[in-house]
Amino acid sequence: MKKLLPYSIVVAIIFFQACGGNTEGPNNPGPGGGMNPAANPGISVETIVASTSDISEQIKSFGNIRAAEIVNVTPQVSNRVTAIYADLGDTVRQGEVMAKIYDVPFRDQYQQAKSQLEQSKSAYVRDSLQYYRQQTLHEKELISSTEFDDARATFQNSKAQLEASRANLTQSREDLKNTEITSPVYGVVLTRNISTGDLASTGQVAYEVGNLTGYQARVYLPLEEWRKIEIGQPVSFRVSNQQDITGEGRVTQISPRIDPTTGLGEVVISLTDRGTSIYQGVLVQSIINVETHQDAVTIPRSALVENVQTLIEPESNTIQLERSYSAFVVQNDSLALRRELTLGIEQGNEIEILEGIGAGDEVVITGQNSLNDSSKVRVAGQEDFQPAEEIPIEASEQSTADTSSTSR
């Protein structure tokens, strides 16, 4: 009858077989006498292929959408408001009546002015005829110069009275017309400051009307960004709580000066395409495209390796920081080569490469900080080695038992 070896002895035998059965290792030559290639698989990295795309230098700022022009509607005459025809949010056309002012006194003044004009006309006709008759008689020396001068003065006075009466009629007609407060533009009512029964005053703004001929946004930029803005540059709008572009526009006005208090310059952007999310007063992010390069080689900014050198300026005794950038390019799926880079435009996470990397190069984006020039690498996802064959424990126990029985 066979005797089974104790369990602890079997486990020890399996352990020594597993450890000592393979004499090749990191420090042991393989069958060919050289180092085992699997001993140094390389640093694991992730890569992307550099591609070409359009990239733009962008300036971003926030501002509110407003009408291109906001008009303050002020009453031209003072009296009690008798009716309101336009309210907040209403769309009004040019000349449309928005409110009515009590007009009885102004109507009476108009009628009085008309009567005064008729009287002035009659006096003018009478005095003009008298003047021309006196002029004829004076030329024939039938009347004295004093009588002729009196007739001429009376005529001149009647003429002046006629002109005054006409002006008075025009003013009274205009006052009567102004008892109807009308919109000077086609737009939407932004505010209403009067109600029925209020006393309308010539110094009081009754309505604010936003001109609907266009929308605009006004942004304020620091000097370095303000200097780069030019008329006609394209602009994209994004509502502050949304991700998608909801409108387009162009730079139409640039303030010629920097505000001395804030240090900011004003830029006016007119909308050319308004989406459904853009309306007056909404806060938007304005993305101004300063410069665009087409078919540029771009890589993620995360692929860059920054090198900072500290330089001491002996003349000024100041410290200067000099920055340079590089990236690693993988060749033959195993070797990482350092490339010194010349950078261009940066847009979001993408950056333009002017020199150092070409389209189609395989660029390391993860693990590059652990690399040196010509480091051996293993691109993540590749099968660089075959795992050792696993031996089931049951088979190992059976093989050990057979070996023990044979030896006896």
Automatic annotation (TrEMBL):
Give residue ranges for domain CzcB-like barrel-sandwich hybrid: 70-210
User: Carries keyword Signal?
Assistant: yes
| Top-level taxonomic group | Bacteria
**Keyword list, A-Z:** Signal
Q: Where is the Multidrug resistance protein MdtA-like C-terminal permuted SH3 domain?
A: 328-367
* Pfam families in the record: BSH_CzcB, RND-MFP_C
Q: Region annotation Disordered: residue ranges?
A: 382-408
Task: Tell me which positions the record assigns to the signal sequence.
Answer: 1-20
Has keyword Signal? yes
Give the compositionally biased regions (Polar residues). 396-408
What family does this belong to? Belongs to the membrane fusion protein (MFP) (TC 8.A.1) family.
Q: What is this protein called?
A: Efflux RND transporter periplasmic adaptor subunit
Lineage in the entry?
Bacteria, Pseudomonadati, Balneolota, Balneolia, Balneolales
